[in-house]
Specification:
The chain is α+β, with helices and mostly antiparallel strands and 138 residues long. The protein is built from four helices and eight strands; from the N terminus they run H-H-E-E-E-E-E-E-H-E-E-H.
C-alpha cells in the first residue's frame, strides 16, 4: 500500500503561519489556530506542507484502509481558509445558517476571512467537530 501523501511533519507551525503573505489571512489563521488548540486540547502540528492540525486519530475509509489524521485542521489557501471538520456537515446545518459568509464541501468549511463570520458560531462548530470526531473514534 502506498504511503499517504499528507503526513504529520516536524516543521514549525509558527514559521509556516508567519510566512503567510497576506497580513489579514495571517492574523486570522493565528486566531483559528488558537480556537482549534483550545477545542482539541492539543498543540498544533504541520501535516504535509500546508495543513495545520490538532490532535490525531485513525481515519477509516469505506474500503477499510486507515491512516492517521488530525482531529481538526485548517489550511490557508489562495482562495480561502479551508477548515477540515467532522465529515458529517449536515450536523452543522443550524450553526452554518448563523455562521455568515462561507461555503462547504463534504469535510471542509471555507471562509475568506474571519470578519465574514460570527466567531462565536465558528468556535461552536470547531468544538462540536472535535467532540464528535473523538466520540466516533474511541
Amino acid at each position: 500500500m502506498a504511503e499517504p501523501k499528507t503526513q504529520k511533519t516536524n516543521a514549525s507551525v509558527e514559521a509556516f503561519l508567519e510566512s503567510i503573505p497576506n497580513e489579514q489571512t495571517r492574523v486570522d489563521c493565528f486566531e483559528i489556530a488558537k480556537m482549534m488548540k483550545q477545542a482539541a486540547k492539543s498543540e498544533p502540528a504541520m501535516w504535509g506542507s500546508s495543513i495545520v492540525g490538532f490532535g490525531e486519530y485513525m481515519l477509516t475509509y469505506a474500503n477499510g484502509s486507515q491512516l492517521p489524521w488530525p482531529l481538526i485542521a485548517f489550511s490557508p489557501r489562495k482562495q480561502n481558509i479551508t477548515l477540515y471538520i467532522d465529515p458529517n456537515t449536515e450536523n452543522y446545518e443550524s450553526m452554518l445558517e448563523k455562521l455568515g459568509k462561507h461555503s462547504t464541501s463534504k469535510v471542509c468549511l471555507y471562509i475568506k476571512k474571519l470578519a465574514d463570520v460570527d466567531r462565536k458560531v465558528l468556535r461552536e462548530i470547531i468544538m462540536n467537530s472535535v467532540k464528535v470526531t473523538k466520540k466516533l473514534n474511541k
